[in-house]
Amino acid sequence: MDRRAKLPPIFLLGLTNSTYGMAGGFACVVLPEMLAAQGVSGGRIGAIVAWILLALVWSFFLSPMLDVRFSRRRYALVFAALASSGVAVTVMHHGNSFLVEMVMVATYAAASLLQAAVGGWMGSLISRQDDAKLGAWFAIGNTGAGGLMILVGGDLVFRLRPAAAAAALAAMMMLPTLIYLVVPAPGPDRRLASESFRQFFGEIVALLRRRTVLIVLVLFLMPAASFALCNILAGVGADFHASASVINFSGGIGVLLAGLAGSLAVPILARRIPLKGLYLAIGVVGALFTFGVWAMPRMPWVFALALIGENIFQASAFSVEAGIAFESIGSDNPLASTQFSLLMAASGVPITYMGLIDSHIYDLHGLTGGMLADAGISVAVCMVLGAWLIWLRGRAKQAA
């Protein structure tokens, strides 16, 4: 029987990414809210979140281990347990901002390796026509589960004793791993790890010589559709006079619905717009939305609108990125996790440096400066990249 006939529905394969999404929701909204309650400044919170999210980038260099010795199911389970434990430790010791930053960096690194493991695992199982659909549900697993963490986690952290809240959040993050038990896992590769690393870096060199891959990497590395502003909004709710309940509700239900809407829209739009063009279009429209929010009064409902809207565009951008990554993997790719990790690491680079830039400008010029910088840079980059893609297409036509 065809192995794909035994696979669970595509939406379940995509939801294997939910633990990663919960770790991101905790790092980007629940943690900033906890730090703000401790009196940490908005700029400092943004910098902490940016350094945490940087783990998505450097953890890529550890990803070759995911394709050797053990099955990706086992790696996914181990890193899910590490990420859940890290969140629990953070909740119990959130009064120590330095310890929190160190623990959360390790936590997000574990979550990023978990995403690489399940991304390579699921991407190598599906057929090519399911790439966009899996990319959408992978994004839903990210943003939707992140919204659930924001909605539930914020209340648990502030209403329960630290030990009880830590145990509840860790159990919630481990719940999606039950899906792993019903998904076929390829047998482990018994090659030596050093052999895999050598092959991996050889493959990367060959990959970087391909024109199409270089174009995709440029798109992912530039701040065209990073929407890093999402990662500091939760920590600056006071600028909009938003209460903790407004932050939790808009960050929970709002982000959950935003993730669903933004992700499910991508497969429909991708039928008419090439993915690269769609990616830049999302960046431009999202930046225009940020300009619109900047012009509005600083009120609680505007904060909710900003947080929900920014997450719609960020979810859409992530869905496009995931679809491109799955398309590049193909079936039965022995280095599927490392290749997926490479592309996800590239997409995480602008989120990190734009988060640092937004935080620095926030400290100097407040929320107004941060919003204008984030939106202005995105529009400028999208225009340059769009002109570059048109020029490349023209050269290709001339060569033909």
UniProtKB/TrEMBL annotation:
Key words of the record: Membrane, Transmembrane, Transmembrane helix
Keyword Lipoprotein: no
SUPFAM superfamilies noted in UniProt: MFS general substrate transporter
Highest taxon of source: Bacteria
Positions of transmembrane segments: 12-32, 44-63, 75-92, 98-122, 134-152, 164-183, 213-234, 246-270, 277-295, 369-392
Name recorded for this polypeptide: MFS transporter, PAT family, beta-lactamase induction signal transducer AmpG
